[in-house]
Amino acid sequence: MDLNTLTRLFDGLDSYIIAVDSEFNTKFTNGRVSLISGKHPDEMINKKCYNIIHGYTQPCKNCPIAEDKNFQGTKVIIKDIVTYKGERMFARSAFTRIADDLYVSSFIDITEIERERQKLTHSSKESKANNFRLAHERNIKDNEINFLEKAIDNMAQGIMIVDEEYNIKTINKMLKDTSGIKDIGRNKCYNVYGFQEPCKDCPFKTNNIKALRQMHDKHMTIMFSKFDKYIVESLRDTTREIKLIDDIRESQEEIKEKQRQMSIMNTDLLRMNEKLKTVQAMIEEELKQVGHIQESLLPEKLPEVSGYDFGATYIPAEQAGGDYYDCIQMSNNYWGFVVADVSGHGTPAAVIMAITRAIMRSYTFDVISASDALTMVNDILCDNIHTKDFVTMFYAVLNTHNGTFNLASAGHNPVLFFDSSEFIVKKITASGMFLGTFEGLSFEEKKWYIEEGDIFFMYTDGLVEAMNSHREQYGYDRLVSKLMMFNDYPADRLIKEVMEDVRDFTAGAPFEDDITILVIKRNKKEEKKEEDK
């Protein structure tokens, strides 16, 4: 099984998973290990496990592998870990030998349990802690036996593990339901796809890592991963994605062809200096048209919701940019508010921005969970973006009836929230990586409430990173001051005051990055007029 497949299978688990050989070289980690080491899983491969986890230069004293490399079964130890952030963490680690030269360690975070145990001093509390610990140990034992099968069985995508004789060793519920096969003992893996003999693109015979199948009018994308003598097949229903991607690829091909023709034209222009200005003007006009097209993708008008005031602005650093904001009206008083920033500038960023907008509007309508929406967008972008570009995004779903937000962030700047009751500006963020690079990501979701007089200020980093001639950034402090100073202004006027201050600060220096601002303000109720005396 390759690292990408393992990552997709295990990144969603609460456990920290690490696989090593008998020389303590790391062969695989899931994404959660990065919370301890501070490194991406790819950076930890073939590094010593005791170095990336503890910072040691030699194996841990209580390491089961160091004590007996031929041990069988599972050994459980308590580990005292200091993360790369300096935070102390207690973990219960189960070591299992799964092959001649491969061991898997599964960490369960028991920091809170351990701290509670250390606080208990008298016998009644000690007895309670012991009972709790014993129950937890039993749960861990059960999880160690069943966690893989349960995790696989509960996945939304189909999972099947087969041996070299094409026998099905494991198949999850989703794939059983899709294929209609219930008795795996009487069927081979190729029977699941409706074949009577091994598939022509079988990874046991070829080096294929990906294939397409059609099952009951559904288009399924299969990822193959070899692991020892087994093949892991991961299936995902990509019927809608394939249609969307076909449309996007067609657009990309048109853009590539246009770029190719422009390249030929530019080569000819070197030999035809007398036509340089004319052709340059044509190019500038086309870039303007890209910018106009991009601006046309932005909302024609902001929402009109009783009790709320909205404002927005978009200022590209070039004629076309990679920033994006949107207001998506849903059912039952819900609105989705997006602010996103595509890495890079110009036409490529504008294209990715347009793709992102299309995905958001096509797939996240009436998805009131902000984290679920970002997960869907990320998976589709990963199948579509084949460059080093990525997208940061902050997504807020507002119930305008009660003022409740569902919030999620994909590596984006924190939202600035002016709390009128405390007269303070707070930063709101949520953990989550940027979109379009790593599949299978999950995003933290937070809830927030906006009351009368409060301001929800969303923006891209071009605002706080705007520089003057001394290469000094505008920064958060100056922006916070303006939010507090102009909090009583309508949303549009507030944005105008902020941008005037930014231009005063930069003193005419051109913006190096796109600037986007989206403001949501909950209005105060009008005071009753005094009765005429």
From TrEMBL:
Q: Name one GO molecular function term.
A: phosphatase activity
PAS domain segment(s): 2-54
Question: Sorted alphabetically, which PROSITE patterns does this protein's record hold?
Answer: PAS
Q: Which SMART domains match?
A: PP2C_SIG
Keyword Transcription among UniProt keywords: no
Q: Where do the coiled-coil regions begin and end?
A: 241-289
Return any one Pfam family short name.
SpoIIE
Q: Which UniProt keywords apply?
A: Coiled coil, Hydrolase
What's this protein's name? PP2C family protein-serine/threonine phosphatase
